[in-house]
Amino acid sequence: MSQNDNPFGALKSLVEKGQIQTKAWVPTSSGSKKLTAAALRYADASVKKAFEESTRQQNRKEPESEKPAAKPETKPETKLAPRTHAVRRELQAVKMPEKQLIERKHESKRASSKAQQVKDQSKAQPMRMKAERRVLKTVLPDSANESSRRELMPVAQTRRSPFVPPNPITKPVTLAPGLPVSEHGEELVKAIRENPVIVVCGETGSGKTTQLPKICLLAGRGTKGLIGHTQPRRIAASSIAKRIAAELESEVGEIVGYKVRFTDKTMPGAAIKLMTDGILLAETQTDPLLKRYDTIIIDEAHERSINIDFLLGYLKRGLAKRKDLKVIITSATIDAERFAKHFEINGKPAPVFTISGRTYPVQIRWRPVDDTDEADDKTLMDAVADACDELQIAGRGDILVFLPGEREIREAAEVLRARNRPGLVEILPLYARLSAQEQERVFKSGGVRRIVLATNVAETSITVPGIRYVVDTGLARIKRYSYRNKVEQLLVEPVSKASANQRAGRCGRVADGICIRLYDENDWARRPDYTDPEIVRSNLAAVILRMKALKLGDVRDFDFVQPPPPKAIADGYAILSELHALEKNGELTDVGRMLSRLPVDPKLSRMLLEASRRGALKEALVVVSGLAVQDPRERPLPAQQQADQAHKRFADESSDFLSYINIWNWFETERANKTSNRELTEKLHRNFISPRRMREWRDVWRQLKELTEEIGWKTSEEPADYEALHASLLTGLLGNLGMRDLSADLRAAPYLGARGIRFWVWPGSAQAKKAGKRLMASELVDTSRLFARCVPDIEPEWIERAAGHLIKKSWSEPHWEKTRAEVVALERGTLYGLPVYTDRRVQFAPHDPVVARDICIRQALVEGLYETRAPFFAHNKRLVREIEEIENKTRRPDVLVDDETIYAFYDKILDASVVGGSTFEKWRRIAEKENPKVPFYTLEVEPDGTIRQKRAEFNRQNKDIDKVTSFLTLWQKEIQKRLTKKDRKSTEESRKLRQQNYQEIRDKHVVVHGGAFAGELLADLLEKDLMDLPVESAENGESPTEIAA
Fold it and tell me: Which of 475-484, 518-527, 957-966 has the highest mean pLDDT?
């Protein structure tokens, strides 16, 4: 088959000319490349026209005869570039029959060494996930036969090639002269070649951050994989990449690239890749052994973030499977012995290299704030301004001020602008959330003195040029997690000695420096040597979920540099159980496996998963991405009232989450109708909306949307209702619920939360004064008070559906309910101590069948509350009534056996499964087939099984009762005869006379009128009731029978 008959051949030529982008290539399992059929689909009209022109030209040049399809490539074809040669071979294979394809594979194995080298050099570059998804959706043209279809199907599923041959470095790699690390270059090169792990302990200004990647190049690294270089902050990753690229005289991305949250400037063939530690951690999901890298540098390890600690443990395990991998741990202030011991091999710790810093002398001046209240911002800002005034007098040079957070930076900027004349001093902020353009201003020196107001992002890695003076407030906002209350605490705390020394070292890099510390020496001496590692003060749910997904075993057995406390591990497992991501045995559920595929916080992933099920994914993407960034609504101090008024148009009375959707819809409408970016920016500023934060919000939304599309979740065209959206968000916020406490004191927090906490609604919320009885919060933040931010009203039914596996139930007042014919109790459900519902009437038997059976017997059968037409029940009730009548007549309560005896009767004959009406009837139908009289009462119901009385005796007793009645009538007449007026001499004599008469009457009439039972009964009547009867009672005309009654 000639190239004229193969349209892919001509299309290949267009690719070589650059008329079709390289996204038309896909890698094959053999490592070469081929064109997809989708390439034709993406070609526009001009490319199609060029395709037709190229085909006509080839028809004029080449003969009409076709070349055999199975003929090996000729010599002219081997002169093609390696990539083109591999492509042509794959393109021709598309149209070949299956038999010829097999022959071609055998011929490829017998190719010359030069052809094999060409093949090796044409390894496919890694495809992006988005391009790979397009290939999955590609539909082959009808002209392609089944064999070619079967060949192309595995292409999209093939694991991407881990590495692309590096781009050539035009300039020889040399180390920067004058840096201390450059003096140890040869020593470090040798150590890298001979050891899998080395620890470089370099002081501030040693040049380790910028020179170590080049030392790795000199050691021959970066030829079989990338040199990965991690940084704890995005701003450091981008600035260092630009610095190294400038030293190698190359464009950013060509030799040295970087990848941060939403920016990837790493071209195929780059040798060095700067990134945040979170980016490298995310890559372990798709590349567990990190085969794309042959060297990994973990910089600033002393910060001990949770990502760094996890990476160090992960790399230790990976080294056992990757013998070719090199790991370098660097930091300015590091616990070298701890890290060296962590990476020990056969009992031998990793080698440690200590490099002194190239610093100038730094004078420390102590200027403690007069007011001991560090929370007084006005006092602190005045102290900062006074320190800057002192340093401006000291000499020329820029000033770097370390402040706790963004709010303090804004306040300090206002105070400094008021103290300095415009044009003489340039005040620049520096913190992580600044846009790249605003951050670049810090690294460009100007003609006037600069005062840079920075958070702790400027402590390590990055070097701000021209800094000679430092003002250290000694404070930083440090995130801590409360394991008890499940609350993130972002409070201002004193920094450690290591951080303070790092800050002072920033001013001794270009000349002699001065560092003013706004605290005294005694305060500094009391501070800890190092900041607590993040792993001991953070939530570990995301780490545990990632470890479960990567099958790394139990977190308790993981090789952490410093193991997290047991309570942190238990808390992480509890949160994952709350999200329904873990089974009881600790394994991932289907929900957990789905959550592990999203590189975001598990709580946010759970919200999106539930939203996809409820048809609210479109709205949930907007809300979740908004929660992942800082609130775009600005509220500057001079214009707070104007800002509040402008934000009212976006507020929603029922939910703060809907305010996010209102802002988003307004922004998208304005963005679609804009005439220029400047006009849109001005409109955002007029509404006190931050353009930078809106861009970041949209970047997060786009990333999450692509991830959900990759998984297969679809958005609904119909808008979601209130319940669908908020019930979805609720699944990730089960620990942030609240219920209004009407009995709370006016000065106390009005809302009762989970685990006994109390909180206020954030004052800036639209729900601050209108919140309902129940609400949830996007976060609980402990600042001056414990505040709930971003709250909507919710219904308790949503909580029960979302947290059914977490609700603890208790039951009270179990009793027999006649209408339901079962034992019923009042159920109370609580979530982390917060009532969800109360007094719900539920069947009690499933929760405690033993107690339910006991109540069923006592109340339903013994007390007779069970309603049934069964013959036994009517018989038993009739028999009980008869015996009760006997008791009434004889005044003897012990004729009928007690309830415990009857209970024992039923307990003995009933099966253990009888707990209610339905189970009793089921048992009765089976039992009566064997003995129809099983549940019938008899008089043989003694607990010990003995017979108390028989039916015959009972009938005899009835006759005796009649005899006693007759006897009492005769006795009444006889007593009236004897008790005459003349016989009443005194009360005592009357008693004696009555006793004598009673005895005579009893002895006479018991024998005549009654048997043993009647005599016993009469004796009881006389002795217990009538013996104490006063004589006066008889005088009033009352008969003994009436008295006895």
Answer: 518-527
167-205: per-residue pLDDT in tens? 888 778 889 888 888 989 999 999 999 999 999 987 777
Angle, CA 575 vertex, CA 608 and CA 606 arms, to 5°: 5
Contact 450, 399 (CB under 8 A): yes
Residue 78 identity: T
Q: Give the residue carrying structure tokens 């305010």.
A: 659
For the ranges 142-156, 363-377, 439-453, 619-633, the lowest mean pLDDT is seen at 142-156
CB count within 10 Å of CB 576 equals 25
Question: DSSP letter at 478?
Answer: E
* Confidence (pLDDT) at 1000: 60
pLDDT in tens, 273-311: 999 988 998 888 888 899 999 999 999 887 788 888 889
Per DSSP, helices labelled H in 227-288 are 234-247, 277-283
Q: How far is CA 172 from CA 61, 224, 691, in A?
A: 45, 19, 43
Q: Decide which of 894 and 1 is more confident.
A: 894
- What is d(CA 220, CA 210) in angstroms, rounded to the nearest whole number? 17
Of all helices (H) and strands (E), which one includes residue 272?
strand 272-276
Nearest to 572 by CA among 541, 602, 596, 549: 541
Q: 752: Cβ–Cβ under 8 A, 6 or more apart, which residues?
A: 738, 739, 740, 741, 744, 758, 834
Q: Which amino acid is at 549?
A: A
SS3 content of the chain, % helix, strand, coil (to 5): 45, 15, 40
Question: What would the mean pLDDT of 1032-1038 be, rounded to a whole number?
Answer: 41
Which strands sit side by side in the sheet containing 737-740, from one edge to the other? Answer: 475-482, 487-494, 779-782, 786-789, 758-761, 751-753, 737-740, 774-776
What region, left, alpha or beta, does residue 826 occupy, with left being phi > 0 and alpha being psi -120 to 50 degrees?
beta
Find all residues with CB under 8 Å of 870, minimum gap 6, and list them: 924, 935
Query: Could you tell me the pTM of the whole model?
Result: 0.59
Q: What is the pLDDT of residues 97-106, one digit of tens each?
A: 443 433 443 4
Backbone angles phi, psi at 1026, to 5 degrees: -95, -15
- 256-259/226-231 β-pairing: unpaired
- Amino acid making up residue 663: I
pLDDT recorded at residue 970: 65
| Integer-rounded Cα radius of gyration of the chain | 45
Residue with the larger pLDDT of the pair 176 and 124: 176
Phi then psi dihedrals of residue 457, to 5 deg? -65, -25
- DSSP label of 563: P
CA distance 965 to 1005: 12
Give the closest residue to 774 by CA, choosing from 757, 798, 755, 806.
Answer: 798
The residue with tokens 């208790």 is 810
Within 8 A by CB and 6+ apart from 672, the residues are none
Cα–Cα distance between 134 and 117 in angstroms, integer? 30
Between CA 909 and CA 941 the distance in angstroms is: 12
Nearest-angstrom CA–CA distance, 791 and 659? 11
Sign of the Cα pseudo-torsion (552, 553, 554, 558, in order): negative
Write the single-letter amino acid at 551: K
Higher-pLDDT residue of 693, 616: 616
Cβ burial of 795 (10 Å; 0-12, 13-18, 19+) is: middle
Neighbours of 292 (CB within 10 A): 18
Packing angle between helix 722-730 and helix 657-672, nearest 10 degrees?
120
387 phi/psi in degrees, rounded to 5: -65, -40
pLDDT above 50 (res 43)? no
Give strand pairing partners of 516: 365, 471
Block residue for tokens 């479109």: 618
Give every CB contact of residue 525 below 8 A, 6+ residues apart in sequence: none
How far is Cα 784 from Cα 184, in angstroms, rounded to an integer? Answer: 50
- Cα(677)–Cα(691) distance, integer angstroms: 10
